[in-house]
């Protein structure tokens, strides 16, 4: 794999883990996507091997793909399925555990913490704790926020505190949109992951922007998973719909695309034309590379042992190859180093 050796430093900012204490809570469920719970035609849950929770496995994966540094985050469904009091206890423990992993990793691992979002007061306390924890650079949040979406006004004090602390919110989908079947076929997880996830992000972020949050909190930093869903492509349409809507026209200081362009995006889009669309929309200074590990593993693997690079990772390297080295380096590590203050 010559590509890997020629690339220099690589930081993976989209890489997940279910820490052992979350595994203990999840073990009775082993259900990740909502339709795994509802659809009797799907096998309940999915096999969860050690690549989902073990730090040595994460480091092995990083070594296999020439990744020097990873900013790891708890994977969906985070703590969304717990009650507020349970979330508070779990978040504090998980953030401490995550920070300990960072501390022991000799700067190979940084992290995005997790919040007990059903209590805004406790979340504000937790972001302050996260700010002081070794290796943590922000938080991961689902599109439902505290249960009512990102345009929920209750979130504003939390967003204000996150802006004040200069932490990054890594926004990630989980629930999917439009997953109900339109026809008789079962295509597995293909459509929920390819389209449901990306439209979920698209809708949640659009709603957030339409509240005018970035007029109030212009320095609030969001990192959007999966290259912003479909937003780089649909931003022009969103702008035009605002201008032509009597209820919305004049409500925001700027067009939606003005705020959107200033957000951060991962480059997890698996294709050159998608990456080009993203980079035509936002600046190359706003895009950071990722893998979505441990998801999208090769299907042809025996006994959970990965010896060859994963196709999903190779695709996200390959789609950048048309860029010059300077831009590639920005996406691969320099932007992450600057935005997440990684000391590389
Ligand atoms: N599937 C998930 O459940 N989560 C991800 O982040 C990617 C794929
Ligand atoms: Zn992910």
TrEMBL record:
**What does the record give under GO molecular function?**
carboxy-lyase activity; hydrolase activity
Per the UniProt entry, what are the Gene Ontology biological process annotations, in alphabetical order? secondary metabolic process
The record ties this protein, via Pfam families, to:
Amidohydro_2 (PF04909)
The Amidohydrolase-related domain, residue ranges: 11-342
**Record's SUPFAM superfamilies?**
Metallo-dependent hydrolases (SSF51556)
**GO CC terms of this entry:** cytosol
The lineage's top-level taxon is: Eukaryota
**Which key words are in the record?**
Decarboxylase, Lyase
| InterPro entries associated with the record | ACMSD, Amidohydro-rel, Metal_Hydrolase
Query: What family does the database annotate?
Result: Belongs to the metallo-dependent hydrolases superfamily.
What is the name of this protein? Answer: Amidohydrolase-related domain-containing protein
Source organism of this protein record: Clydaea vesicula
